[in-house]
């Protein structure tokens, strides 16, 4: 569903934002419908069940904070349903996907996209559950509530 986006990025181009937005919304609707089903019913056909990594990349490229949040939740659900022994944190998975996207982009456009990605993912890192910044020793700063 997002092959055109990936090909355009690899060639050094920028995907058409209007078309990407339209595809993203349609694919996200499909994906949300699939993850509401029991995992046994999650089909592997990307036309029915779009890849979460492609959705995440599209949300980052669109600079869509809400989309990033929704797709991050989908990725968390998918990770929770993985077989035991394949424990990967949501944060690590998102960071890995962001790096994969940045690797697709030509070097001359990478810095700008990295700033955009860092800004979008930085919001996730400062969630209300976050105990606050850590000190140099790796312990929570007691002066911070």
Describe the overall structure.
This protein is mainly alpha-helical and 145 residues long. The chain has one domain (3-125). Helix content is 60%, strand content 0%. The protein is built from 6 helices and no strands. The protein has helices at 3-10, 17-35, 52-61, 65-80, 90-104, 107-125. α2 (17-35) packs antiparallel against α3 (52-61). The radius of gyration is 17 Å and the shape is globular. The relative contact order is 0.12.
List keywords for this structure.
145 residues, mainly alpha, 60% helix, globular, disordered C terminus
Strand content: under 5%
Shape, per Cα inertia axes:
globular
Question: Fraction of residues in helices?
Answer: 55-70%
Number of strands: 0
The succession of helices and strands, N to C, reads HHHHHH
Structural class: mainly alpha
Concise synopsis of the structure shown:
By secondary structure, this protein is mostly helical.
Task: Furnish the topology, listing elements before pairings.
Layout: H1 3-10, H2 17-35, H3 52-61, H4 65-80, H5 90-104, H6 107-125
């Amino acid at each position: 569903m997002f092959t055109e986006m990936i090909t355009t990025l690899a060639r050094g181009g920028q995907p058409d934002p209007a078309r990407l937005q339209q595809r993203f919304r349609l694919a996200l609707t499909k994906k949300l419908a699939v993850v509401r089903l029991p995992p046994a019913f999650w089909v592997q056909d990307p036309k029915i069940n779009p890849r979460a990594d492609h959705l995440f990349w599209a949300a980052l490229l669109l600079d869509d904070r809400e989309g990033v949040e929704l797709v991050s939740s989908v990725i968390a659900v998918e990770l929770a349903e993985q077989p035991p022994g394949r424990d990967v944190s949501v944060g690590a998975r998102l960071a890995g996907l962001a790096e994969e996207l940045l690797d697709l982009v030509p070097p001359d456009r990478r810095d700008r996209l990295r700033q955009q990605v860092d800004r979008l993912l930085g919001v996730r890192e400062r969630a209300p559950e976050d105990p606050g910044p850590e000190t140099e020793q790796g312990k929570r700063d007691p002066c911070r509530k």
